[in-house]
Amino acid sequence: MNQDKQPSRARLSLITGGSGYFGCLLRDRLVERGETVRVFDLVDVEDRPASVEFIQGDIRDTGAIARACEDVDVVYHNVAQVPLAKDREAFWSVNFGGTENLLNAARTAGVAKIVNTSSSAIFGVPKKNPVDESTEPTPMEQYGKAKLAAENLVRRHVAEHGIDATIIRPRTIVGHGRLGIFQILFNWIEEGRNIPVLGKGDNLYQFVHADDLADACIRAGGRPGFAVYNIGAERFGTMREILEALCRHAGTGSKVYSVPMGLAVAAMQVTSMLGLSPLGPYHSMMYGRSLWFDTSRAQRELDWKSRWSNEEMICESYDWYIRHKAEVLADSTASPHKSAIKQGVLAILRRFS
Fold it and tell me: Which of 290, 316, 334, 344 could disulfide-pair with 203, CB 3.0 to 4.6 Å?
């Protein structure tokens, strides 16, 4: 007797942290591809498409993340307590403990693939550049240490439980709508304030556009087998070159000037520790240092290629901020990377720039 075949279910992708800056962008790219998407986060956002399911929960709640993983085919794990929070306990309970909860829930639910978004902070100040997938991580502050510990959890679950996972390490993410620390920079340039760099500002510094990162994550989600990929722009330059390009683009009269590196780093560390500055330990450590990725493995294995240069993405981000400034300043509920932040002691420096 012939039986009618049941139609196959569309692939369901879960984005943890799907209400954050990158989570929202990844959500939209998956929807554009016709995929079924579910978001797991503490808060919902107004621009979530009606077709995207939302499950509210804390990644530290094992029951909540277990419900979110039901019937899921691919998980894009983006929940993270960011360096701006400067919350050591949360770095470990969210970035490490939350990742363990997600891995256990995904394994129990039979999730076919996990794409774990890590961080370039695991490398601290690298001994040499470019950094590739064989470079030994040397995190130097708690955020980077927690993210590396989360990576090691993923590796352990792959080895001991046979899950299929990929680790994606992005450089500093930039793109339309990316704010946080960048909002301070954009505010200063909009007002024609001068922008400091540490020393000569000749440290090579690589960004990655959120669209390029989303493309890499989606490609990784469709490729079976464990792998690690470092993701960043192919076209980038020094910190001074990036900032001077943005000043020229804005045309507000802002200039880039040098400050002594040792003195500036010490001041940044002290004011951060005292809670007087929004900058965290990673910011003071890396603003004047070089770090860039060799992305050849992602290009070769994922057929991935970055489209945006450092200069293009920082200028695009600035233009977005100028167009949306009023709504950004009025919204106090957005995630740290989608909102304005208090400048603290930097407001005093701003007056004299």
Answer: 290
